[in-house]
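REQUEST ID: PR-0412
SUBMITTED BY: lab tech R.K.
PRIORITY: routine
TASK: structure prediction, single protein chain
INPUT:
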Amino acid sequence: MAKNVKIGTHDGTFHCDEALACFMLKTLPRYKDAVIVRSRDMNILNTCDIVIDVGKEYDPSKHRYDHHMRDFNESVSTVIKKPGYNWTIKLSSAGLIYCHFGNEIIKHFIPQAKDSDVEMIFKYIYNTFIKEIDAIDNGITMFREEPRYHIVTDLSSRVKLLNPAWNSKDIDIDSQFLKAVELTGQELVQRIQYAAYVWLPARSNLQEAIDKRFEADPSGEIIELSRHIPWSEHLFEIEKEQNVQPPLKFVVFGNNNDYRVQCIPVAPHSFVCRLFLPEPWGGLHDETLSSVSGIKDAIFVHSELFIGGHRTREGAMAMARKALELGKAI
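STATUS: complete
OUTPUT:
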């Protein structure tokens, strides 16, 4: 690699997006030993090999990645013009760098990953991590109404706290920025490792359960997992890709005298389910629940009816089957 490679970004108050963007670039061999130059002086920035979050220019051919221009409206869907990349949140410098270098970054951390796995991990990381940073940096609110509370422990807020306070003395802001680079980078690496070694392998387990759904129950609407895995997002993708019919209603999982029957929501992260557990079971426990449900050794049903527990696999399956029967009757 050529000597004196430089990554340019703005000086002054720093934010989560350019700190993470710098980390992502420095994971790549050509930027590994690059010096981060923080300035708004275009004469200085023009000497840099790549410039992010400053410079009033977005031009990948020149490695210029600012997003603050009035006419900038790029999103994942406009930068990556491929089916399945449908996010329309305006990109920050983190999102821009991720769109252009994300696959390469993932391959750096997961070198054995197949191209198809890299693509799935790319989408997962954007949807569960980068998108939030893009939205916060661009001032895109989560709700139209005023929320009942505000989240102040997110990554962007933690980066903000690393900036020197107005009344602090003798604190080097550039050193603080490098702490932000490290902080954001640690979180990115953790999420990529999780996606590759926890989230993605769960898909094959779920696929097997869906393939055997009619063995679990003749209705084909109940699936059984040998353990609890991150199944939700995979389930909706598999259903859509393979046109799974009839739509799945319940997931049964557990071991060691602790089994669960969980209702499948109408969409990932929704609290509205396709079919809830029976209303008379809600909030009941142990003998009372067993008496009302007619299923011996039941443990509990949540008051919101989206999950219940039983001491045995057979009992959990019985709860799911009875809930399906009663739900269809209604």
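NOTES: The longest strand covers residues 250-255.
REVIEWED BY: pending
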